[in-house]
Amino acid sequence: MENRVKLLESLIDKLPVMTIIVNSEARVLNFNGSFSNDFFTVDPDYKDQLIGSVLSCVNSLGNQDNCGGSSKCCDCILRSSLNEVKNTGNLVFRKQGPFTFSTKNGSATLFLQVSAAKLDGYDEDTYALFISDDTNFKKVEEKLSENQALLNLIFDYSSDWEVYRDQNRNLVYCSKAVEDIIGYTVDEYMSGRITFRDFIHPDDLEKAMTAIEGSDFIEGKKSYVFKYIHKSGKVVWVNLSARKVFDSEGKHIGFRLSTRDITENKLMSEKLLASEEKYRFAEQLALIGHFDYDIRNNKITWSEGMYRIFETTPSEISPNYETLMSYIHPEDREMIDTQFQISLLKREPTELSHRIVLKDGRIKHLKQSYRILFNEKGNSLLAFGTTKDITHQVEAEKKLIQLIATKDKFFSIISHDLKSPFSILLGMSQGLLENEDILDDSDKKEFIRSIYETSKKTYELLEDLLTWSRTQTGAISFVPERFSLSPVVSDVLQLLETNADVKGIKLINKVDPAMTVFGDIKMINTVIRNLVSNSVKYTPSGGSVTVEAEVKDGMAEISVTDTGIGMDEKVLNSLFRIEATSSRPGTNKEEGTGLGLLLCKEFVGRHSGKIWVESEVGKGSRRSEEHTSELQSRSDL
Description:
By secondary structure, this protein is an alpha+beta fold. The chain is built from 23 helices and 22 strands. A five-stranded antiparallel β-sheet has the order 2-1-5-4-3. It has a five-stranded antiparallel β-sheet with strand order 7-6-10-9-8. Strands 12-11-15-14-13 form a five-stranded antiparallel β-sheet, sandwiched between helices. β14 (363-374) and β15 (380-389) form a beta hairpin. α17 (419-434) packs antiparallel against α18 (441-473) and α18 runs parallel beside α23 (595-606). The longest helix has 33 residues, at 441-473. The protein is elongated.
């Protein structure tokens, strides 16, 4: 037993904190000499005087009336800790409190942290007090207390879990976000009942311990992503970072650890990678870039996202204001420059949309948001902001407008163009029925002819309407094959010959009989028929309509030229646009719906071709369409 006590006292003497061993009457049996600071220094000459004395202020020997004169004293942190372990038998752990004592320079107060425990192996009840000087920490704590409102704003009301530890890594502060991130209370964490090992995921334990002990983490050079286990059992992904905290004099006083819940982002990222659709969404998110514009030095710094948007690389350009303006669409440059000048004057955040022209001529639509920083003299320093590629959004809006126009056109035709002919049919058939007895054969024949003509036009309208609606829903199949073009043209001209003869119009087929094309013969037939029909409709008596074709760079260009009334620029600009489609009456007052050219555009588009019209008022028109002649199609059309 004696050897055990000696071993214990030898170990105690080597502890880095001051350790005092006392008996049940608070008399000092032994203490080590490794603890010291500016005030609380154990003088070796005092050691013999201290041993056997009642525990009191160590530097107040000879003045025990002020402190420790009685074994029942419990006013100071030392004696209260001793009495607590004596009375309860429980370990006192890290009890904190002030300790005021006398020095040669007057009284001084330290803020001590005391742990107390009963020791086994002694002949009498013996206790050990382990004393740490937390005075510097107390000063830091008092400093933090002065800014408690700010701390509450920054930490307690932040979604990030903030932890503060002193320079010895002792836990000082824990924000309320701990309850949201891992489900435990602030008290559970601060009391030590819950430790890092309790909520770190087993898969990440080794990695986490290695990272936390590493210098990069402590110095704040890196942050790490770990999995935590919530109190409920769910897995939480977090980003953990640390940085050193220094006082106003540059002295290191502690560490701040920030934990951010990134579970939602992590799960989203995993889902994005799990499906092609989510991957495209991630690509869309990447169409955002940010920039900084050093106004005084005319230097722009782009993020990688900006280079992606402009489809260039840092090695190709050095961004500055002039370089940026060279990309801006010529029609938008004045607006961009004017808006920037307004921002300089108003000093307000700016948001605008504009276009850029890429090197290959393609146009992109961008949305830009930025603000300008000024110095104390009011001089502009820096403009910074973000740029988003909204090309897809603009195109979608255009498509939406077209779809709305398509719907409006559809209902317009149904409500007017179909209703009117049926009203005529009903009126004429009713007149024929009610007046059958008084009408002679010639009158009846005229009624029947009118009913037939109206029915025929109504059927043609309905057929065009149904064909057009099928193109909108993708119900028409595309079956390309190689065929001779001239016979198809002849069939169309023969079909329209009656209409042309009525107006004395000559139909001419100049297509080479040896010419073949590759396409859907039914669609090509419909396109040629609509183009020739339009030419007949707008050509006065005695005119002509000519169909020609030639091969250009692997594409078959089919043209229908007439000697008709022609079109002005306004009419030309409205062609092939559903929202602007209308039908002019023909030279013999022929009526139409305006759907014919829309069908032509749809069918030519299915052949990777294009369609256009050249015309002047009074000089006729040339309607042309271009599609594949060979088995392959041109990629630029």
